[in-house]
Prior knowledge:
This protein has 301 residues and is of the alpha/beta class. It contains nine helices and eight strands.
Amino acid sequence: MIETQKWNETQLPDLHGRTAVVTGANSGIGLTAADALARAGAHVVFAVRDPERGRAAAATVSGSTEVRRLDLADLASVREFSADWKGPLDLLINNAGVMMIPRQRTKDGFEMQFGTNHLGHFALTNLLLPHITGRVVTVASAAHRWGYGTIRFDDLNMDADYDPRRAYGQSKLANLLFTLELQRRLTEAGSEVRALAAHPGYSATNLQSHAASTVARVGMWITNRLAAQSDRAGALPTLYAATQDLPGASYVGPDGPGEWRGRPTLVSRSRAASDPVAARRLWTVSEELTGVRCPLEVRVA
């Protein structure tokens, strides 16, 4: 694994007195980010589907932690997690996700990748937004360019022609459009909360091991061994977006060739991921699908 980062977690500010929620913190870049935040002094909540695995992961972290159950593929679980939250929340990191999996449905009937990666985090963020005082960082991906070039509003569940790779790309495009529209709403409401996105480059985690195609799984295993950076390096863009003085709606990724690896920096996104009209439409559709409304009073049109 190749490590080229100059900025690293040792440069995090003092986070004592801050509280952070990290979804999917039981492994990969979620666990690495949670560990770095806890070491910097934050109280880190591991929001995980399997509390037993979450507790095992939290036990490896040096710092203040707790584990709470959250299944992003079940809106009832998202509502329960949010309803139980008390007090301020300084940082929400929407990190959990699934990648290139066989066709599956969430408990609410949504295509699993779109439902987990986007709709679950959309609902969670809006339900927690009255508590959030600092930032929302959503982990996207360079794979947002893999889809159909836009959100398939006429077939979000890809019932007509499900393709694991394109479905993943659509969910990551949705993450970026969500960040764009969330920041617009925060700004219009006069909120000091910032919404940002980050992507880890190509990082060696267990995310790739669940791909629907055996060929894809083998290919990614080989790439992980030869070219990927570690999950610790892959977490740096998330940590950078969470703590550095960056404008709202910023997108952070590695600065190396192809954004596969490197030190955290502001990176570009596709034209589709910068479309404010599509971002507002996706927001409206997401509210309808989840039944969760934005608590901010802003102009909708």
